Amino acid sequence: MVVILKQDAPKQQVDELLQWFNSYGLKTNIVVGEHTTIVGLIGDTSVVNIDNVVANEIVETVKRVQEPYKNVNRKFHPDDSVIEVEGEKIGHGNFKVIAGPCSVESEEQIIEVAKRVKAAGAKFLRGGAFKPRTSPYSFQGLRADGIEMLLEAKKETGLPIVTEIMSLQHLDLFNDVDIIQVGARNMQNFELLKELGHSKKAILLKRGLANTIEEFLMSAEYIYAGGNSNIILCERGIRTFETMTRNTLDISAVPLIKKISHLPIVVDPSHATGIVSLVEPLALASVACGADGLMIEVHNNPKMALSDGAQSMTPDGFDETMNKVKQLAGFYNMTL
Ligand code: PEP
Ligand code: MN
Question: Is any ligand 1 atom within 6 A of the Cβ of residue 102?
Answer without folding.
Answer: yes
